[in-house]
Design a protein that fits this description.
It contains no helices and 18 strands. By secondary structure, it is mostly beta strands.
Amino acid sequence: MNRVAECIGANNIVIKRYAQGRVAQQFYFDEVSKTIRSQQWKNYGMEIQSNGGSSNLRMTSGINSRWWQLFKQQGQFIVNERGKVLDVQGGVDAENRNVIVHSKHGRVNQQWRVVYADKYPKDPVKGELNEKFGLYVERPFYIISELPEHRYLEDSYTHELAIKTRNGRTQQTWYFDQKSLTIKCKATNRSFNIFNTNKMQSQGTNSSW
C-alpha cells in the first residue's frame, strides 16, 4: 500500500498510505541539532519518549540533542545512537499502525526506504495508468462477464451488485478513483466492497484511505 511514516498532531508517528503533497508525511534532517524534524511542525523533532526509557516514538518540541533524539540511516534501518531502530509495531501493515523503537532483529517491519520528497514518484492523474492496479485513473469502463450472455456488472441503489444485460445506464459504468484506490460506480459513486466474507456490494468510501 506504499505506507509511509506520518506525524499525527505533532506527536505520535504512525504509518499511513502515501498522500501526494501531505507535509505531515515529510521529514528533514536538521544539521544544527542533528535531529530528524517534521516538515509540517518544524520545531518538532523525533525522540524516544521518557528520555529513552520507553519504546514509544514521538515528535517533541523539547530539542536538546540527547541520545534519545539522535537517529541516522544505516542501509534499510533508521537507527538510534543506542542501537534501537524504527519498528512498525507488531509487524502489522495497517493504516494508523504505531511506529515504535525496538531492538534490531532485521525483519521487514524494521526496514525503511528514505525517499526525498522531490524524487518521490507522482501519483497518476486522470487518464493515466496506475501500474500497480492496472487501471486508468477516472477513465470509464464496463465490467463484462465471460459467461455466454456477456452480461454487464451493475450497481443497484440497494448496494447490491449483479450482472445484467447491457442497458446503457451509468449504473453499469465504472471508474478507478486514485484518491481512494477503489473501483467506483459512475451513477452511485460507491466503491467495491466485500461484505460478510464473500458477498460483494457497493459502499461509500473513506476518502482518507
